[in-house]
Design goal:
Helix 6 links the parallel strand 4 (104-110) and strand 5 (129-142). This protein has a single domain (4-255), classed as Rossmann fold (3-Layer(aba) Sandwich). It is 41% helix and 23% strand. The protein is α/β, with parallel strands linked by helices and 256 residues long.
C-alpha cells in the first residue's frame, strides 16, 4: 500500500472540520478553467475526483455543470452527501475511475491529484474524457511572497519534521506533481487571491491537514501546543484576530 493512502483517508476523521475551515476558490478560477477548456461549464458532464466534502463540487454545480463527485473516503463522502444532496457521489479514486469510457466533458482534481499515482491516473482520465474534453488540476498554495506566510511555513515544517513538498502539509507545494507527471501538455495559470477569517478558523484550517491528522491521539498534545504558540505568533501580525490568508491557485488544464 502506498504511504499516501493512509494520509489521503485520514480526512475521514475530520470531515466536518475540513468542510468548515478549508478555503474555497476565487471566481476567476472557474472562469479560467472555461477559457482553457474552450467550453462553458454550464451543461458540461463533469467529474470532481477526490471531491472531499464538495468544496469544488459545489462551485461546479453552481456554474451549471452536471457534476458527479468521486470520493474514496466514507466520512468525506457522507459530509458531501449531507451538504449537496442533489449531487451524485461515487466511491472511488483517480487511479481507477468507476466511470464509462468517453463519458465526461471535464474532470477536475481540486487539491487531490497529489494523492494519485500519476502514471495510472493520467491514462484513466484520458480514457474517461470525451474527445475535446478537459482535465483540470489545481491547488491552493500558500503565497510565499508574504513574509508571515513564509515564517509560518518554516514553523510548520520544523514542527512536523517534513519538507515543503510532503503531501498533506498546510500550504505545501503539491502542484509539483503536475510538473513531474505531465511534461509540457498542460496549459498553466497562477491566480493569486485571499480570504480573511477569524484566527480560530485559520488554526482549524491548519489542523485539518493530513500531516496533523495522521498523528492521531498520540499527537494531540503536541498539536495543541503548536496551535497555541501559533496563535501567539499570529496575534503579533493580526492584532484584531482576523487573519488574511494569502494563496496562489496553481492551475493546469489539458484538453484531450
Amino acid at each position: 500500500m502506498s504511504a499516501t493512502v493512509p494520509r489521503a483517508l485520514s480526512f475521514d476523521s475530520a470531515a466536518a472540520l475540513y468542510a468548515a475551515a478549508r478555503p474555497g476558490y476565487p471566481p476567476a478560477l472557474l472562469d479560467t478553467v472555461e477559457e482553457l477548456a474552450g467550453r462553458p461549464l454550464r451543461g458540461a458532464h463533469a467529474l470532481d475526483v477526490g471531491a472531499g466534502t464538495g468544496i469544488a463540487t459545489r462551485l461546479l454545480h453552481a456554474r451549471g455543470a452536471l457534476v458527479t463527485a468521486v470520493e474514496p473516503g466514507p466520512g468525506m463522502a457522507a459530509e458531501l452527501r449531507r451538504s449537496l444532496p442533489s449531487v451524485p457521489v461515487v466511491r472511488g479514486d483517480g487511479n481507477r475511475l468507476p466511470l464509462a469510457t468517453k463519458s465526461a466533458d471535464l474532470i477536475t482534481y481540486a487539491q487531490s491529484w497529489h494523492w494519485t499515482d500519476p502514471v495510472r491516473a493520467l491514462p484513466e482520465a484520458l480514457r474517461v474524457l470525451r474527445p475535446g474534453g478537459a482535465l483540470a488540476l489545481w491547488w491552493n498554495v500558500a503565497d510565499d511572497s508574504v513574509p508571515w506566510v513564509v515564517d509560518q511555513g518554516e514553523r510548520l515544517r520544523r514542527h512536523l519534521g517534513v519538507g515543503d513538498s510532503t503531501p498533506g502539509v498546510p500550504g505545501g507545494a503539491g502542484s509539483r506533481n503536475l510538473a513531474q507527471s505531465s511534461g509540457g501538455e498542460f496549459a498553466r495559470r497562477l491566480l493569486p487571491w485571499s480570504r480573511t477569517v477569524p484566527v480560530d478558523t485559520h488554526l482549524a484550517n491548519l489542523s485539518s491537514h493530513s500531516a496533523f491528522l495522521v498523528l492521531g491521539a498520540d499527537g494531540e498534545a503536541s498539536t495543541r501546543r503548536f496551535m497555541d504558540e501559533e496563535r501567539n505568533h499570529l496575534a503579533a501580525v493580526f492584532p484584531d484576530g482576523m487573519v488574511e490568508e494569502r494563496y496562489v491557485v496553481e492551475l493546469g488544464v489539458l484538453v484531450r
